[in-house]
Design brief:
By secondary structure, the protein is an alpha/beta fold. It is built from eleven helices and 14 strands. The strands form three sheets. The chain has a seven-stranded mixed beta sheet with strand order 1-2-3-4-5-6-9.
């Protein structure tokens, strides 16, 4: 997973020209259950697709250069048109295709804060880079504050906002009949998560979001993470356990009035590095995220 995660880091906030060079790989399509499929390219977010008599329903759309591949993959699944594109959050590896789809008149749907974030220039402290505002055609035209429901392709899709988790605009999507949940980047499988504090994210919100996901899922639910392979409930539980234990370890050191430098030097996440520290977010970086997130609560 290390090379994949490194590409994610590079393409999340870099210039479009570089991002285009990083999106030349293959896009694979895999059935999940019922009407739901997942389109995967290692350098971008997982695309959820529902196909059926009502048309195609897409969750996330990767980067702009991937739109032709996404469209072709959907066309192989159905001869019906794409009717909706939904964003799990605003980051460019999940919403970069919005302008192309929106320019075709396809309805883009997301949380209120996704439109707000995409409408303005944004500075990322983690990547020390500035992201320009998105063009008007990329912006969601339907937004919601808490939750909404779609009745589509003989399924009921519950859409629920997760406050202050990976960002302040995260949403999860549960296909009730298929029993498939798309978690966006509230649940990822590349290692320690990137929690975007500059976009209103928090460690506490991530844990709360995972608690909600676990309440929404059962033993047979299939979960599409923002990045990584489709998983079961047990992987969500393991991810949550790592976050809870990591936060507790950092909190203990903070309770001893240690500075950030001393907390990082203490290596509180050493036991998790082999399993979770091989992605682009290293243990020291995640310690820093936890420290800053908890300090600012």
């Amino acid at each position: 997973m290390r090379p994949i995660a490194a590409v994610i880091a590079l393409t999340l906030f870099i210039a479009p020209a570089i991002a285009q060079q990083r999106t030349d790989g293959d896009l694979t399509s895999t059935p999940v259950r019922g009407s739901v499929h997942v389109l995967v390219m290692p350098s971008a977010g997982n695309v959820g697709v529902s196909v059926g008599r009502d048309g195609a329903f897409i969750i996330d759309d990767q980067f702009a250069p991937m739109v032709p591949k996404i469209s072709a993959a959907v066309a192989r699944l159905t001869d019906q048109p794409v009717r909706y594109v939904l964003n799990t959050h605003w980051h460019g590896d999940h919403s970069g295709g919005n302008a192309a789809f929106g320019g075709q008149g396809i309805v883009i749907v997301a949380h209120d804060n996704v439109r707000t974030r995409m409408s303005a220039e944004h500075f990322s402290s983690f990547f020390n880079s500035t992201i320009p505002p998105s063009p008007p055609e990329a912006l969601p035209v339907i937004t919601f504050s808490d939750r909404m429901t779609f009745h589509f392709n003989d399924d009921t899709i519950r859409v629920i906002h997760i406050p202050k988790a990976h960002t302040d605009g995260d949403a999860v999507f549960h296909f009730e009949k298929a029993d498939v949940l798309h978690a966006g980047d509230v649940f990822v499988l590349y290692g320690f998560p990137f929690i975007d504090l500059s976009s209103g994210g928090s460690v506490a919100g991530m844990i709360d979001g995972l608690d909600l996901i676990l309440r929404m899922t059962g033993p047979d639910t299939l979960v599409i993470p923002g990045h990584g392979p489709v998983a079961g409930r047990e992987r969500v539980e393991a991810f949550r356990e790592m976050l809870v234990k990591s936060r507790a370890k950092v909190r203990r050191l903070m309770g001893e009035n240690k500075s950030l430098k001393r907390v990082v030097a203490a290596k509180p996440l050493a036991e998790f590095e082999q399993e979770w520290g091989q992605g682009f977010v290293k243990a020291d970086q995640f310690v820093t995220t936890i420290f800053n997130s908890e300090r600012d609560r």
